[in-house]
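Quick start: read one record
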Amino acid sequence: MRNVLQLNTGPVPNQATGKSDYHFNETGRLSGVYATDWSWGALIADLDNDGWKDIFVANGMLKDVTDQDAMKFGLVDSAGQKVQNLKKIVDMLDTNPISNYIFTNQGDLTFRDVSQEWGMDTPGFSNGAVYADLDNDGDLDIITNNINEKASLYRNDADVLKSENHFLQVMLEGPGKNKFGIGAKVTAYYNQSLNYQELIPSRGFQSSVDYRLHFGLGKSDIVDSVVVEWPGGRKELKREVDVNQVLVFDFKNSVHPSESKEMARPDDMIFKPSGKQRIDFSHKEDTLINFGEGHLAFFKQSTRGPRMARGDVNGDGLDDLFIGGSSGQQGAVFMQLADGRFIASLQREIFEDAIYNDSDALLLDVDGDDDLDLIVGSGEYAGKAAILTNRLYLNNGTGAFSKVADAMPGTVVSSNTATIQAADYDNDGDPDLLVATASNLDYYGSPATSYLLENDGTGKFTNMTSTLARGLEKLGMANDAGWLDYDQDGRPDIVITGDYMPIRIFRNTATGFEDMTIPMGLDSTHGWWNRLVVCDLNNDGFPDLVAGNHGLNSRFKASPKKPATLYVSDFDLNGAYEQILCTYNGEKQYPMVLLPDLVSALPHLNKKYPRHIDYQGQTMEDIFGAGVLKESNALDVYTLRTAVFINDKKGGFTMQELPLQAQFSPVYGIAVHDFNSDGKQDILLGGNFYESKPETGIYDGSYGLLLTGDGQGGFNPVSYQESGFFVQGAIRDFEVVRSGNQNLLIVSRNNDGVVVMEF
């Protein structure tokens, strides 16, 4: 159970109805306001007059009805008898007073807890709460009612402590029985910004706030204009308004606007939905529940598809498309017709492989016959190794594919393939392969081996990992990879990353691949990296990187000084490995796993922790002892931010964090393209993730995000109204496809249909 903070996206055009819909981005965890115990009245108001609205939360529950031990074991009376009467049970529960909360708005969608700093840390049981300028000194005071106690009055001293900040209060005199003007909308314009409020006094919990609307203005000493829109549409405007006053608007002075227009959809939106259904494909995720061993993992491991591959497979000059399927759903080849439609092609041998879970795909000519063959990775499955074999389908030149048996002998048959990337690493004229492996079948957390496969020119591949790329052996849990010539020596190098991994780069020395991660200063970039794209972001001729991470809108937090750590070990010595994820709370690191899940996976701990109160505040060392931890494999995460890595042209990369809007959800889809045709590379991001445990919550804070580039490696977020890109669901991949004179953006979504947009 947690708080949510919903950011209004503004009106988003609905192509089906022709009207505008309103949606919200949920950012409670990113904003830092998601945890305030048992909360009641929530107020949003500018409490320090800095121009940014703060958050107050009334807090407390008289009886601790969430006491897990009481729920598990019940309560006994003085005679030792188990209490059955519900009222008696509630009466016997503990009483734990807690303080209210105030969060100050830091102006960047994040908030800081200032409850103690601002004098709001007195423990109690509050529910109803209001704000009002009771002493008319230009700041908002707070009143709370408290269970079994007197009400509390908190005088605000911002007029003294923050005297440099100004304010404006608006009082409305409405028509008829609506004497206070309830429902009116008031906007103050100043300092090239606006401040908006609606007069709806029912706030907090069963409470009513001051009928005067209070605007904090920061250091602005003049308000350009104030506009009141009354219920019914009449308006009134006042210009050049002095600050630090109560401004009165009377309904009788309002007028009907001379012209009222609905917000029109801009003609210059970058993305527009396709005018016709172009691709009839809906991904259907399998029902496999593979959170990991036991009950300790927080995320399902098999919902990272579908991935796509683009290319002209039948030689007609038109881009075609392959979309991977889940286990039980075959992947599909879509041929593009001259009119721009895509038609599924009957591919018998691909159809027969529907049991595989397609984790990635690429179209390339592996046998030198000048047509595009299809390679499909297999992964995300905790079952038999036989259905984890990667597959090669040769093209007969017309777009008909036939499977090659044992195309990659002796490799990756017992591990989950994350991606397959091609490059001619030995400069012999044919494409070789890098196979990035996400995990072994043994257990999550074991370091999996990724592979270097050499092509003999006919589509037969030889495993060269132990000969040329020993650094790929037991590398880790890779999620994505690529090829890049970062040092411009004419030889493709390797970049690879994943869960609990840094951005790792292996330099192609012609005699083998040398790990350059530490020399390049990338050894502290460990993250939960999902996607990686190689591109030139600043048009300097050197390859840069865009890397999609878990994001900041999460209960999990990580930094170099306070990492998130996954401990992997056979803690109960039964031959099976367990994984326990820990994060910092204050200055100590604690396991995130709930006690019922911990003792379910490790029953021997039942004796040590029969009750939740025994488990409270226990560190990994407390639970298992220092000796056991030394024998564990500890995997760290230092950053969860989605970022770009700019090539410094000196053999290194500089990490640049992308804007906060890029951190609303985990990122899986990345497209780099000049979407607005200004000659500079832009970035399109997509993500969301739904298959996680209730205690962590789902990750659905994004509808996709366009970041326009400045040509120097800097990127700015574009609103949905301006970009036109607004896609709900779990985005997994993008492909840019040419269709006649039109560019198409193909968007794949997990367990959902494909979206086609024009730009």
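The chain is about 5% helix and 35% strand.
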